[in-house]
Structure formats: structure tokens, C-alpha cells
Amino acid sequence: MTIRVFIDGAVGTTGLEIRDRLIDRSDITLVTLPDALRKDAAARADALNAADAVVLCLPDDAARDAVAMVQNPTVRIVDASTAHRTADRWTYGFAELEPGRTTELASAKRISNPGCYPTGFLALVRPLVRAGLLPADRTVAVAATSGYSGGGKDMIAAFEDPAAKGATNTGYRLYALGLGHKHVREMQQHGGLARAPIFLPAVARSYRGMLVEVPLALDDLAPGTTAAHVRDALAEAYDGSRLVSLATELPAVLDIERTARTDRLELFAYDDPAAGQIRLIAALDNLGKGAAGAAVQNLNLACGLPETEGLRL
Ligand SMILES: NC(=O)C1=CN([C@@H]2O[C@H](COP(=O)(O)OP(=O)(O)OC[C@H]3O[C@@H](n4cnc5c(N)ncnc54)[C@H](OP(=O)(O)O)[C@@H]3O)[C@@H](O)[C@H]2O)C=CC1
Ligand SMILES: CC(=O)N[C@@H](CCC(=O)OP(=O)(O)O)C(=O)O
Fold first, then answer.
1. What Å distances lie between residue 228 and 127, 132, 138, 234, CA to CA?
2. Which superfamily is assigned to 116-286 in CATH?
3. CATH fold of 3-113+291-302, please?
4. Ligand 1 center to residue 7 CA distance, Å?
5. Does the CB atom of residue 206 touch ligand 2 within 6 A?
6. Closest Cα to atom 14, ligand 2: which residue?
7. Per the record, what are the reactions this protein catalyses (predicted)?
8. 3-class secondary-structure state, position 20
9. Domain ranges of the chain
10. Within this chain, domains 3-113+291-302 and 116-286 share the same CATH topology
11. What is the pLDDT of residue 254?
12. Ligand 1 mean position to 292 CA, how many Å?
């Protein structure tokens, strides 16, 4: 027997990526709606309730509407949008983030897929907070650059089509300059931080890929903390993971495309012992572990399928 999976929003940027990872699988029957019906409320309600599992690849409001349409109590929902990432009664779908999370996901009916930037940030910061190396009351800065597919089809058009709304020739752009960004609350809550991180996002003229950086001064960490303690905490947190790893060799440069087209999340801990400074970096694909890869991983876990089936290792 196969698992029936409906992708709501299957022709969007994230939806297409998830479809690519599921289409050839023999353990899954993929359900999508024809173009004429993909926004039809009745057709969506039928598909949402007939599925074993649904993946929502929609803007936030449409994702909330879809959740409200689900009446069948057996349906598992993986929501790729921001709508439920800090909501009660939803399991945050970052399997590697906390001990026991994989087990929780296996019985979860409502799973919120993490944001792309929070995936990099939390992978670096959460193990340090949990180990008591980074005091929870610190204000942490996080600078990050995304490939332009991170903004969905409208941003892709703006970077690729001179006639599109907001068309741009830029190679690199800072945004969210007023500091508020929809990911800040998610980063604070799941990081276990008392204060909101200072988030400095940017977008580059590269289709996919992401680098997320967290600079730390040893002076700001728990007394006696060294770079070796930080590395040990990160290595231990992801020991045995097939998707998340701490690099044992530190390249001289890191390109934004480093893990593009994979679902891997690579972590790096550079340091300058003389200055007492650490530069933590996460490299991921915004459409991989930052979206579709994590969604498929969550789907696998929730449906009792092998965790990394269909993923790009
Ligand atoms: N792009 C990325 O890197 C990441 C995206 N996400 C999240 O995934 C979600 C989807 O993003 P993304 O794929 O980039 O966005 P896109 O804009 O590329 O795709 C969204 C899709 O949803 C469709 N849609 C909109 N409203 C409805 C509706 N009421 N009913 C059915 N379909 C609808 C759109 O159709 P139409 O174009 O016809 O309106 C479009 O096909 C967002 O919530 C985003 O935050 C998460 C992590 C990373
Ligand atoms: C480059 C770019 O614009 N990125 C988006 C974030 C990606 C996204 O919408 O995804 P999630 O919130 O679901 O992770 C932004 O900053 O709003």
C-alpha cells in the first residue's frame, strides 16, 4: 500500500521541488490538482481530506485556509509556510534540533516546516544554548545571504525578467533594513533565547543556496568557554546525522552554492584564538534543507517511511 500525498501549491517554487523529490517514489502516490482547479476551494478540500498526508506550499494566509479545510482527523499536515512555526499544538519540523524530536515527528499530525534562515541559525545556536555555552539572555547577531529563489516566483521573475515587477540588475542586496523580519520570532523561540536576535538578511544573484553567519566573542559566552567547547557541542549535537554535519576541515572560502541542489546542512566553526572570536557559518540550500528537503524528511517521519528517502544527500 502506498501513502497518498497531496501537494497544495504544487506549481510554486517549493511545491515543484517537493514534487521532484516524490515523483519517482514507489512508496508514495502523489496527488496534485490540474491547473484549472488548483485554487478551487472545493477541489482542494476534497484532495486535502482524501490524502494520508498533505504538504502546504502556499503563502501564509492560503496555508491557514487549507488547515481549516482539513476535517479528516487522520490527515498529517506538513506546512512549509511561516503560518504555524511558532503556534501551539504544532511540532516544529527540525528533526535534528532537539533530542527526541524525531520521535515526536513520527506521531505528529501537524508539522511546521522551519524557515530557511532559521534552519541555519538554529543549527548553529541551539546546541550552544542547550549546553549552557551561550547564555540565553545574550543578544545574538545573525547575518545571512540567500539565493534569489528564496523569495519565490515573484523574486525569481524580478531577477530574471527585465519586464517583471520590481525587475533588478543587482548582484547583491541587503533588505529588512528596519530589522523586523518574519523569521525573528521563530529564531528566538526555537533557539530558547530570551532576546530577539539581530537579523541581517541579504539576497544574491545566485538562484539557490544560503550562507548564515553567527559571530561570537568568547567573552560573551559562559566563563571558560573555548572554541573547542563550541566545536565539541556542535559535533555532538549532529553526531550520526546524514544531513547535518560540522565540517572537520575549514575551507579558505565558502561559496553560497556550496550545498546547492542537496538537502545537506554543513556547519563551520572558524576562530581567531588571539582575538577570542568565533565565526559560525551554516551552508544550506534555501530550497533543500531550507524548504523541500526538510518537508520530505518530515513527511517521511510522519508516515513511518525511511527518514532520508528521496532526499539529496
Ligand atoms: N522559496 C523558498 O526558498 C522558501 C519558501 N518557503 C515557504 O513556502 C511557501 C511557498 O513559497 P514559494 O514556493 O517560494 O512561493 P511561490 O510564490 O513560488 O509559490 C506559491 C504558490 O502558491 C500558489 N497559491 C497562492 N495562493 C493559493 C491558493 N489560495 N490556493 C492554491 N494555491 C495558491 C501560487 O499560485 P499563483 O502563482 O497562481 O498565485 C504559487 O504557485 C511560502 O509560505 C514560503 O514562505 C519556505 C522556505 C523556503
Ligand atoms: C530571499 C528572500 O526574500 N527570502 C524570504 C524568506 C524565504 C521564505 O519566504 O521562506 P520561509 O519564510 O518560508 O522560510 C524573505 O526573507 O522573506
1. 14, 14, 20, 10
2. Dihydrodipicolinate Reductase; domain 2 (3.30.360.10)
3. Rossmann fold (3.40.50)
4. 11
5. no
6. 115
7. N-acetyl-L-glutamate 5-semialdehyde + phosphate + NADP(+) = N-acetyl-L-glutamyl 5-phosphate + NADPH + H(+)
8. helix
9. 3-113+291-302, 116-286
10. no
11. 98
12. 12
- Are 210 and 146 in contact by the 8 Å Cβ rule? The answer is yes
Per the confidence metrics, is the pTM higher than 0.80? yes
Per-residue CA distances from 19 to 10, 111, 294, 296 (Å): 7, 18, 13, 10
β-partners of residue 6 are 31, 54
DSSP 27-52: SEEEE---GGGTT-HHHHHHHHHH-S
Which ligand neighbours the alpha carbon of 286 most closely? 1
The reported pLDDT for the residue numbered 1 is 86
Catalytic residues: 116
Nine-digit cell at 3? 501513502
The whole-angstrom separation of Cα 257 and Cα 208 is 7
Distance of CA 41 to the CA centre of its chain: 28
Enumerate residue ranges in the chain where pLDDT < 50: none
Taking the centre of ligand 1 as the mean of its atom positions, its distance from the CA of residue 282, in whole angstroms, is 25
**CA distances for 67 relative to 93, 110, 238, 244, angstroms:** 16, 9, 32, 30
The answer to whether residues 60 and 84 touch, using CB atoms and an 8 Å cutoff, is no
Report d(CA 109, CA 89) in Å as an integer.
9
